[in-house]
Request: fold
Amino acid sequence: MQEFFRWAKSQLQVDKRLVLVYAVLYFLWGMGMDWFGTQVEIARFTYWWQVITVYLLYMIPISLLLRKLPFHAQYAYGLIAMGLLEFGGYALQSSYAYPNNLLDQFFGIRNFSLGMALFFALYFPMGNWAAAKIYGIVFSNKKEA
Reply:
């Protein structure tokens, strides 16, 4: 277990500007997805500030831990993280799924959370790719992410 904590600590020690890139990217992404989910009546957070707790406080550390892994590994570990998050969000009713939404109609009501977890697990490899690209463009003459 100590080996894991040493590895995790090394993965989380990054340039503060990279964390800022993740924070801005994920905050905008989270607000956009919450807005979209509300507009098309798929799902939404119960409170707007959950974007901060989910996208910034939950997803950024996980993204940093996964960022150097291959795409398939980021997706697989991200699926575990998102599965737990989706299960918890709907079980605690901090997320709201609109009745008879598009995903329910297409996949069935019993597959809604699974579909959400499968989709949102892509956030980790996509978010890591986008954050690295943005960081490289904005801080191109600085050390790499």
User: Anything to note?
Assistant: The chain has one domain: 14-138. Residues 14-138 form one domain. The beta strands are 43-45, 95-97.
